[in-house]
Amino acid sequence: MPSLYKYSLIVFGLYAFFSSCQKDTFNTDSGSQIIINRDTLWFDTVFTKVNGTTPKSVNKQILIFNPYDQRIKTSIRLGGGDQSHFRLNVDGEPGSSFTDIELFPNDSIFIFVEVHPNPNNNSPDFNPLIIRDSILFNTNGNESKTMLIGWGQDAHYIFRDSIEVDTTWANDKLPIVVYGYCYVKPNVKLNIEAGMNIHFAPRSWLFVEGTLAIKGSKDKPVMMQGDRLQPSWEEKSGQWGGIWISHPSHSNTIEHALIKNGTVGVYCDSVPGDLSKPNVTIQKTMIRNMRFDGISGKGSTIHVENSVSSNCGRFTFLGANGGNYTVLNSTFYTGGRDFFRQEPTFAYLNRRRDEFGSILETYDIQFKFINNIIDGILKDSEIGEDIDYSKVITPSVVDYNLLKTNKSIYSSTGSNNIINQNPLFKDAYNYNFDLDTLSAAKDLGVRLTPDISDDFLDRPRLNTPDIGAFESQY
Predict the structure, then answer these.
(1) Does residue 383 surpass a pLDDT of 70?
(2) What pLDDT does residue 52 have?
(3) Residue 122's pLDDT band (cuts 50, 70, 90)
(4) Tell me, what's the pLDDT at 128?
(5) CATH class of the domain whose range is 35-151
């Protein structure tokens, strides 16, 4: 019995020794990874609306877990380093970078996170509208991260929310910042008054199924753009989505607005309308720097006058799948600033084709394009069409325009279009589309009924108006 007892003690001791050694060994397998309980950490309080000199922050936490029977090491750091607006505390230690943090087998630790924008410094370089950073983890060579997002400057923030009752955004000195989307529900009206600044985070949209009424002025236009305010981002496309108008929306109006740096400026998505209730009327508005289209509609009723659509990666204007399009005294131009294009800057079509060019469907279309400048840097034509003329509703007209084109349909007998002449903008690169002294667009337009009595800048039109959005002052 004593010998058996001694043998049992030896076996138990060896088991305990090897078991302890196994747990003391670090897991270095490149396939192993810690578990992080949050992929995004939101700070949804407007932190900068506090008094005093000490920034206020909600303290939030992340749990990281080691699911293995061995210890494991991970390194943790803030992407923005010491300059970040965020602060970390890892297992009781503050800092911005932590190397070889040990997690015991089947154990976890907490990371505490705060955000500290400066309420007394609202410059875009120090406090962007939306503060972003990330916590970066490196475990056995595997990278993972948790996104950090918080509000920076004083503003009214809309976070994936809906407008459910008639609402007015008026200029109370604070901008509106949209994160994700703002959705205007059916039978609800959103009014946006002069001087309002609306900013959108990346991939954020203003969705409209109710009614949108933007009412800016020449001196206080409504501004809609991305949330990056640094000078280097001032004219960069694709920073946000755009205005997306869907059924059953109609009678939307946009006047004296600057809509820039998005994906699509104004998009009407298969929204039928009629002349008494256009889906959208756009007046005295500039849309620019869109990654795809400035103004785009599918089977829609769109009215545009005294407006500019410029510098778009695809079309400054697109009327697709038929519809009813009225475009008067407006300017459409894409130069060589940012985009390489093969398609014309202005297009209208009532045929839908597949990827091989075969016609799938045709639609009714009606159009009235008068007194417009359609120009760009393509060699051949900046106006394009794909039309089944048996489906064109009369009256439809393309006349008194200044067009860059090699297509004879725009210069046929009886046409008053001016073909391949230089509009001589004052400074198209910097979006000044006023006409220079010798512009070919001067005094060659036609008075319309109903009359368009002034131009983009509210200046009076002459008896023989200029073509385009601007009436020359020479």
Answers:
(1) yes
(2) 42
(3) low
(4) 73
(5) mainly beta
The pLDDT assigned to 11 comes to 47
Q: How far apart are CA 107 and CA 436, in angstroms?
A: 73
**Who contacts 93 (Cβ-Cβ below 8 Å, separation ≥6)?**
none
pTM attached to this predicted model: 0.81
Give the closest residue to 467 by CA, choosing from 345, 340, 371: 371
**Residue 438 one-letter amino acid:** L
56 strand-pairing partners: none
Q: Round to whole Å and give the CA distance between 232 and 150.
A: 22
CA distance 52 to 197: 27
**Which 8-state DSSP code applies to residue 55?**
P
| C-beta separation of 207 from 232 below 8 A | no
Tell me how far the alpha carbon of residue 315 is from its chain's centroid.
16
Beta strands 72-78 and 130-139: pairing type? Answer: antiparallel
How high is the pLDDT of residue 341? 84
Residue that is written with structure tokens 């720097």 in the block:
289
Nearest-CA neighbor of 146 among 34, 30, 31, 29? Answer: 34
Residue whose structure tokens are 């399009």: 325
- Compute the distance between CA of residue 280 and CA of residue 305 in angstroms, rounded to an integer: 11
What DSSP character marks residue 394?
Answer: S
pLDDT at position 237: 95
Which of 192, 450, 245, 473 has the alpha carbon at shortest distance from 329? Answer: 450
List C-alpha distances in Å: 405 to 191, 386, 420, 426.
40, 15, 6, 22
Annotated domain spans of the chain? 35-151, 156-435
CA pair distance 435, 454, nearest whole angstrom = 15
Among residues 405, 407, 409, 382, the alpha carbon closest in space to that of 397 is found at 409
Helix (H, G, I), strand (E, B) or coil at 15: helix
**Cα–Cα distance, 384 to 307 (Å, whole number):** 20
DSSP string, 31-46: T---EES-SEEEE-S-
pLDDT of 18 reads 46
Torsion on CA atoms 385, 313, 240, 372, rounded to nearest 10: -50
Rounded to whole angstroms, how far apart are CA atoms 236 and 260? 9
Tokens 């800092």 appear where? 95
Give burial (CB, 10 Å; 0-12/13-18/19+) of 335: middle
What is the C-alpha end-to-end distance of the chain, expressed in Å? 119
Q: Which 8-state DSSP code applies to residue 116?
A: -
Q: Give the whole-angstrom CA distance, residue 431 versus residue 397.
A: 28
Inter-residue contact 210 to 186 (CB < 8 Å): yes
